[in-house]
Amino acid sequence: MNPSQRLKPIKKLADNKEKTAAQNLGKSVENRSQQIDKLTQLTDYRIEYMDNMAVQTQQGMSGEKLQQYHGFLSKLDTAIEHQNSIVSQSEKNVSQSQLNWKTDNSRASVISKVIKNMKNKEVRAQAKQEANQTDELSTQAFLRNKQL
Fold first, then answer.
1. Integer Cα distance of 70 and 72 in angstroms
2. What's the whole-model pTM score?
3. Domain ranges for the chain
4. CB burial of residue 28 (10 Å; 0-12, 13-18, 19+)
5. How remote is the C-alpha of 36 from its chain's centroid?
6. Which end of the chain is more exposed for a tag (fewer CB within 10 A), N or C?
7. For residue range 27-51, what is the model confidence (pLDDT) as tens digits?
């Protein structure tokens, strides 16, 4: 078995690891997008809620109703803060996934280059061996013809 062929299982493992890292990166990016969408929905809802509260206040509102609005607004702000932290964590996950993919991609590329270089060496060695055999056969033929 050629040395380059012995590395094929290692290359396959590296390629599989890179593929898995790429899939994980895709999932991380998708998750980040979903979390950003949730944050956008919460902030849009907060703006809508504030606008509604302003209209209700101008039309006259009881103190109890105003407290309920402020209480809900406080809970909404807490939810937005929590969602901001989730978005921040998902950004970190994407960065880590990108780093993992780049590392695995580099490793797979290096292994591919090593295999390619080994194959080139094997081809050159075979060509040299064939050239030497051809030279030897030519020399033997020449000597045989010379003896006749």
1. 5
2. 0.74
3. 3-147
4. buried
5. 19
6. C
7. 999 999 999 999 999 999 999 999 9
Q: Does the structure show a pLDDT above 70 at 148?
A: no
Question: What is the secondary structure of 69-107 as a DSSP string?
Answer: HHHHHHHHHHHHHHHHHHHHHHHHHHHHHHHHHHHHHHH
Domain 3-147 in CATH 1.10.3210.10? The answer is no
**Alpha-carbon Rg for the chain in angstroms:** 35
What pLDDT does residue 66 have?
87
Copy the structure tokens of residue 92: 């970190």
Question: Going by C-beta distance under 8 Å and a sequence separation of 6 or more, which residues neighbour residue 84?
Answer: 39
Token pair of 63, please? 């103190």
pLDDT tens track for 84-98 = 999 999 999 999 999
**Residue pLDDT, tens place only, 53-62:** 888 888 888 8
72, 49 Cβ separation under 8 angstroms: yes
- pLDDT at position 4, please? 83
Cα distances (angstroms) measured from residue 3 to each of 10, 14, 16, 114, 131:
12, 17, 21, 10, 22
| Tokens 């996950």 belong to residue | 93
